[in-house]
Amino acid sequence: MARALAAVLLVLLVAGCMRGDEAPAAEATVERVVDGDTIVLAGGDRVRLVQIDAPEPSEGECYGVEAGDELRRLLPAGADIVLERDQRLDDVDRFGRLLRYVVREELNVNLELVRRGAAAPYFFGGDRGRHADELLDAAEEALAAGRGLWGACPAARLLPELGVETR
């Protein structure tokens, strides 16, 4: 009887871990922020915040420096985070960076960057992850309020299939 009960519990546990778009989350520590949508973890792994795009400071894009500063405020060096994979999307990008939602103290940092106008939704290849609708809603609110890049960059356009363009 105990063996049968253990088998049933194991099946329920495995089924619960594999439902829908959820994948096991991983804990990590931030080493440093590279720019407005990329971080380096303690241990050296690089993470690209999935489903968002921030202006690139290295390319002189409007709001590129500010976007990186905003991410540094949200993820200072030494911050403990949780990395969440979206099963609907690629695991890594062409540069070998992990593609993840980053959560710090229950705050979805990807979504918060869009709310603040420091990034915009980016649906690479048209693929929409589990937070796509929330990201679009947050971007539309930030755009309407003129927050972040939407107020600072007159040429900025909300084009989720192409990534953010502020020039």
What does this structure look like?
- Helix 3 runs parallel beside helix 4.
- The chain has 167 residues and is of the alpha+beta class.
Helix/strand layout:
Blueprint lengths: L1 H16 L8 E10 L2 E4 L4 E4 L2 E2 L10 H11 L5 E5 L13 E7 L2 E2 H7 L4 E2 L10 H14 L3 H4 L15
Parallel strand pairs: 3-6
Antiparallel strand pairs: 1-2, 1-5, 2-3, 4-8, 5-6, 6-7
Strand order of the largest sheet: 1-2-3-6-5
Biggest β-sheet description: 5 strands, mixed, barrel
Beta fraction: 15-25%
Distance between the termini: 68 Å
Overall average pLDDT: 90
List keywords for this structure.
167 residues; alpha+beta; OB fold (Dihydrolipoamide Acetyltransferase, E2P); five-stranded mixed β-barrel; two-stranded antiparallel sheet; 5 helices
How would you concisely characterize the structure shown here?
The protein is of the alpha+beta class and 167 residues long.
